[in-house]
């Protein structure tokens, strides 16, 4: 353990008693129960920037987990839940910890249940075009296995190498090809989960059903608060035989919005659509003459059967040209393609900057004004606040606005206040403009306040469901806007 860690850990040693450790070891095996401080420290945060800021300043985001368990089967997950209920111990389902909103941050020394050993493809059904996979499987390994068999999941998040299939579903995530294949909720056909009451929920994969509200969708986006997803069946696609990219320069964001709206409303389905604001375009188009009087960058990728993809490309180009776009060199596309799974934040964070990303959803009616209002609000908070945005999940009725905010190195107290203010204003503008406060990162811990505002009476329904299934508030308590666990003093 390094110096920083020992400073942080000083005085925070609440762990499990030897009896409880032995109880869990009897379920998962002694080697799959971790209780050492270094391990507990490694699981005290996910990739939430706020947690990182706290660690940089030598404090924990909240608490240390009291132990880490690694079950191998759904039966072991069930036994863990039963044992935890008997002993009134709180648990957190853990995928790979790539969440960016604190969904796995322990608030009261919860026990982490790391699901990565549930990592097998159970069945690939090439007739139906479906795959059944255990929830802890690594995203990239999953996609590579499908590709070896001529398929793709069509779900390719930037974090594919550092996340699990179960985490995608628990967070209601989106991949970079969402404009063609949809978000993860469009792909889940069935699932199995161990509920907080210890019972197993099985939603059989079928193509459609009309048997009441969708039970499956209670688990999609549930962020661990309604139990452990152990297995899922997803719709998959044949790997495209052909693809072709197009880079365009637009005069303004508004002409880009209008063109892309027309493209998707014309039922064209590019695999990738990415429109960047001025700041983000500049970083990617330096020294490219095409962008001198048309500074807004747009990247499109078409794929599938060659004949079809070619027609889609021609039709989309005609639409974009009618909005005064010109075709530019492929360099920005090649750069994006070669770095699409990289994380940009690491360098800034290690240089002491306060960087974060916020993704919201807006409809076409509101997006132009929403962008300007959010950009101006960020700039008004601090003259050196960096603000950049792009739109890379585009739908017939609107799009996801993905924003990066960044403050220069400064005293932590001041920075955290400004960071909080930026979130507050951006999320509130989103609500005022009828958007959704989250498109694919979920709610976790950090978004609690705004999720409550957005869900409104729906939050009340969710709390009733949670209380019914988990009366002692033991499974990932205090997340997704739900009631905090007794003893938690976490606050922003
Ligand atoms: C650099 C970077 C890029 C990212 N890019 C994207 C992106 O393109 N698209 C996107 O959607 N997200 C993205 N994310 C966010 C994150 O990767 C996703 O939310 C991802 O789905 C989380 O998966 P995980 O397995 O790491 O889950 P974790 O972080 O371990 O958990 C997240 C939440 O899900 C719950 N959970 C996890 N597994 C289960 C399970 N099996 N059953 C029940 N609950 C469970 C946890 O309790 C927690 O509340 C990015 C993150 C980073 C750091």
Automatic annotation (TrEMBL):
Annotated SUPFAM superfamilies: FAD-binding/transporter-associated domain-like, FAD-linked oxidases, C-terminal domain
Alphabetical UniProt keywords: FAD, Flavoprotein
InterPro entries for this protein: Alkyl-DHAP_Synthase (IPR025650), FAD-bd_oxidored_4_C (IPR004113), FAD-bd_PCMH (IPR016166), FAD-bd_PCMH-like_sf (IPR036318), FAD-bd_PCMH_sub1 (IPR016167), FAD-bd_PCMH_sub2 (IPR016169), FAD-linked_Oxase-like_C (IPR016164), Oxid_FAD_bind_N (IPR006094)
One Pfam assignment: FAD-oxidase_C
Record-annotated FAD-binding PCMH-type domain positions: 61-239
This protein's record includes keyword Flavoprotein: yes
Keyword Transport: no
Gene3D superfamilies in the cross-refs: 3.30.300.330, 3.30.465.10, 3.30.70.3450, Uridine Diphospho-n-acetylenolpyruvylglucosamine Reductase, domain 2
PANTHER family: ALKYLDIHYDROXYACETONEPHOSPHATE SYNTHASE, PEROXISOMAL (PTHR46568:SF1)
Family under the similarity heading: Belongs to the FAD-binding oxidoreductase/transferase type 4 family.
UniProt name for this protein: FAD-binding oxidoreductase
Species this chain originates from: Actimicrobium antarcticum
